[in-house]
Amino acid sequence: MMTTEILLVLLCVAAGVYCSLTSVERGVPYPPTYTGPVIGVLAQTTFGKMEKFGHSYIAASYVKYLEMSGAQVIPVMDSLSAEELNRTLHSINGMLIPGGGQIFPDSKFYRASKFIYDWTVSYNKNQTETQGHFPLWGTCLGFEAMLYAEAGANETNDIRFKCSAHMANNLTIQEGAQDSRMLKNLDSKLYQAVQTEKLVYNSHSFCISPDKIEDTDSPLHKNYNLLAVNWDAEGQQYIALVEHKTLPIFASQFHPEKNGFEWTTYEDIPHSKNAVLFMQYLANFFLDEARQNKNQFSESAEFYKRSINNFSPVYTLMAINSTLETCYFFHEK
Ligand SMILES: *[C@@H]1O[C@H](CO)[C@@H](O)[C@H](O)[C@H]1NC(C)=O
Ligand SMILES: *[C@@H]1O[C@H](CO)[C@@H](O)[C@H](O)[C@H]1NC(C)=O
Ligand SMILES: *[C@@H]1O[C@H](CO)[C@@H](O)[C@H](O)[C@H]1NC(C)=O
Ligand SMILES: *[C@@H]1O[C@H](CO)[C@@H](O)[C@H](O)[C@H]1NC(C)=O
Ligand SMILES: *[C@@H]1O[C@H](CO)[C@@H](O)[C@H](O)[C@H]1NC(C)=O
Question: How far is CA 219 from each of CA 143, 146, 235, rounded to the nearest angstrom?
Fold first, then answer.
């Protein structure tokens, strides 16, 4: 150990480059710059068989989904303080709140989601020279958290109802959605296919009724456009896809990342060409939004230290019969 360090220090000195001991441990010094866009993905507390791998996790499918469209990814712990979250968000170019299983409103995950949601609204409304256009995407539980926060919901006044949707669906696209920021550039064949073929996968036990947007006195009416709906196993209608009326905030109750990156045989996840093309369309759309944001970490070392590439995913499908193919685990509480 000692000799290796000395050797590396000597090599660094000989090469005439700056290198600290921490960077030597990594094998090479941190490069002086890095290239974005950088997207944060919110981690959440592990439960059940996952607990033995760490205190919190992120399904690797979300990471692959973003990387596929040209993102660098950092995990964002749900235990970060408001100050740390604020600093993190001011240093990255967009945020994704994933699906999973956490309670509302009394969980670290929900509290962090609400902070991120309120921060994103505030940041985008400020629209100054240096800030504006920070995109936020919510998937499944993330979708529910964002709309719950927007509605100012709580335990006694939830906006969700109990439902059962663990299946592939076509999307019933709503009037006007063809002009939405999210869907307006979708190729006409795919726009047709997503309505007639079962291209999206749902996996949730809570739903939000379209009334929550459509009724003029409902909490989501003012700021959200309804893009698509779906029906659960009992034929109850629910919101499938939304976008904020003015800000770069988007959310789906279904799971785009599963089409390309989840392979459990216990779920009927669509893997057809059109399903994968629709997944890619949504990820590309989100990354285009993130490329408009110019935030950066003030020190490149912080980016490299926080990159998801510091962690190795576990093959959870085989290790614990998880329906998630691979997951990243973190020891932070
Ligand atoms: C949030 O972070 C930004 C950038 O680091 C800083 O300018 C601002 O004062 C922070 N705001 C709060 C409320 O901490
Ligand atoms: C938006 O601007 C206000 C007023 O300058 C500031 O207090 C707030 O922190 C800004 N929001 C964000 C998320 O930067
Ligand atoms: C929940 O929200 C409702 C409506 O906004 C409010 O009247 C009630 O006091 C809230 N309850 C709690 C426990 O915060
Ligand atoms: C979408 O699926 C539903 C339920 O399976 C079906 O009733 C409907 O006809 C489909 N929509 C289109 C446009 O094919
Ligand atoms: C693996 O999980 C699935 C459901 O997710 C279950 O049906 C199956 O019995 C489990 N297999 C084993 C060996 O535990």
Answer: 15, 12, 24
Instruction: Please report the atom of ligand 3 found closest to the CA of residue 153.
Output: 2
Residues 17-74: tens digit of each pLDDT: 343 444 446 788 999 999 999 999 999 999 999 999 999 999 999 999 999 999 999 9
Q: Are residues 45 and 97 in the same domain?
A: yes
Tell me how many domains the chain contains.
2
Both 12 and 157 in one domain: the answer is no
Q: Which pLDDT score, from 0 to 100, does residue 300 have?
A: 97
Judge whether 255 counts as a catalytic residue: yes
Q: What is the pTM of this model?
A: 0.92
Quick one: 218 and 285 in the same domain?
Answer: yes
Quick check: CB of 323 below 6 Å from ligand 5? Answer: yes
pLDDT at residue 27, rounded to an integer = 83
Boundaries of domain holding 2: 1-30
Identify the DSSP state of 222.
T
CB 229 within 8 A of CB 210: yes
Q: Is 83 in the pocket of ligand 1 (CB under 6 A)?
A: yes
Closest ligand 3 atom to Cα of 154: 1
Let me know whether 90 and 137 are in one domain: yes
Ligand 1 pocket, residue 86 CB under 6 Å: yes
Distance 280 CA to ligand 4 centre (A): 23
**282 in the same domain as 152:** yes
How far is residue 62 from each of residues 82, 259, 262, measured CA to CA in Å? 24, 11, 10
What one-character DSSP code corresponds to residue 308?
A: G
